[in-house]
TrEMBL record:
SUPFAM superfamilies per UniProt: Retrovirus zinc finger-like domains
Secretion signal, residue range per the UniProt entry: none
Molecular function GO terms recorded: nucleic acid binding; zinc ion binding
Keywords of this entry: Metal-binding, Zinc, Zinc-finger
Record PROSITE patterns: ZF_CCHC
PANTHER family in UniProt: ZINC FINGER CCHC DOMAIN CONTAINING PROTEIN
InterPro entries, per the entry: Znf_CCHC, Znf_CCHC_NABP, Znf_CCHC_sf
Source domain of life: Eukaryota
Region annotation (Disordered) ranges: 458-483
Residue span(s) of domain CCHC-type: 53-68, 75-88, 98-112, 117-133, 266-281, 293-308, 338-353, 359-374
Official protein name in the record: CCHC-type domain-containing protein
Amino acid sequence: MSDWQAGAPASANWDHGQAMESTADTNNDAAFAAAFGGQDSDMGNSGAMDNACRNCGQEGHFARECPEPRKMGACFNCGEEGHSKAECTAPRKFKGECRNCGEEGHMISDCPTYVEKCKNCQQEGHNAIDCKNPMMMDRHGVADMSEAEAWDLLKQASNERDIGDFKEAVQILTKVAPDYTYPRLEKEFRDRGFNIYLIALEKDTGETWTNVNIQGETGKKYVVSYFKSDKPQRPTLANKWPASPEENMDRLANAGIPLDRGVDLCRNCEKVGHKTKDCPEEKMVREQLIVTCYLCGEQGHRVRDCTQERKKPGRACRICEAEDHIAKDCPNREKQTCRNCGAEDHMARECPDREKRTCRKCGEEDHIARECPNAPKQTCNICDAEDHFAKDCPKKGEPGLRPRRDWSQVVCSLCEQKGHGRARCPQAEGTAAANGETATNGNAGAGAGWEIAETATAGSAQGGWEQTGESHAAPAPTGGFAW
């Protein structure tokens, strides 16, 4: 709790603690609290005046709906009621202190001891618009260092490629050694191998600003900019960039940084040299922004101050934008024909004679195969994971043997039974026998090329790996894998 609240208990109002301590001042405290809308005169019903009108004090409406004339209060200039300070015709009374002599009752422009100085050179007797002297450079906020320390800061900022720190180091250097010029600095930067470049570009600074070099000379043509490369990095700078380092040096001799000239710009005639209140030309009438209420369409007030009743937003028809019906009941709705029964009063998804759909996986009629909750999980053929397929497997293309397939979970695409694939399906064997096909050892179609059939000669060579007279190859297992 802050110091000004230390003596009072925690309360929603400033004077509530005093009202509890002293019953003699209850009426005064209640009136003070009621004026702020925090408590009523009984001091028991907190917030009773929250719904009262701020204009007339009566309940039942807000200030924007008050039928009574708006009370302006006393004018802050003359103290009279009936008008605001902006509408007051009495001369303005200055109640502050003069910034020149410190006395009350007048401004610095009316001070008898004030002598106006030039904002460009800070000398007396002329204005900034007529000044031909160099600008007084204000460097009181720049750190005081030696020239060697400034060069160390420049080198560090260049190595870090920090343009902000590099600019500050340039200001420190020019404060301790004001004889430096921008061409001399750029030449020194190149000799030291710095990564920051001074490039002179032509820019429009306006009538109230001017380009000033290190010595304070104004009216320079080009603006000194800092870049990390001697080539333009943006297309917008290509036309403004100097064609060669020699041209850049010539530009830097006539370049500076943009600073305020200290001259006034009239907003009436758009000319420099005087303020708007001192403009000799006739005052131009500018169009004022007209405020329009979006609720009633009248001008002069906003929606928050509108006295008309606000309409509750309702659902509008998307076809005709009427509010008494929605799109499905719109009379202008285009006729739609049901694809199932051909009727025009409903669509296929709402058809009462809709054909039943049967799932080809589980046989139920309330869903189709792609929506079947009993569908078998599809696993990756490489790593047996269930969260992806073989085409998305992270182990795809890695060397090494693949894991054995769990044939108990494999579903045959012919008989839709688990435990074997299409190559080992009995229906496939029966079909092959009916077509007159033969197989070694009676295993018709076993493996479908994945297995090496066992031959009558147990000592035959396997896959041509061994061609000698003595065979050490093991017999091929029946029903195994041959990768």
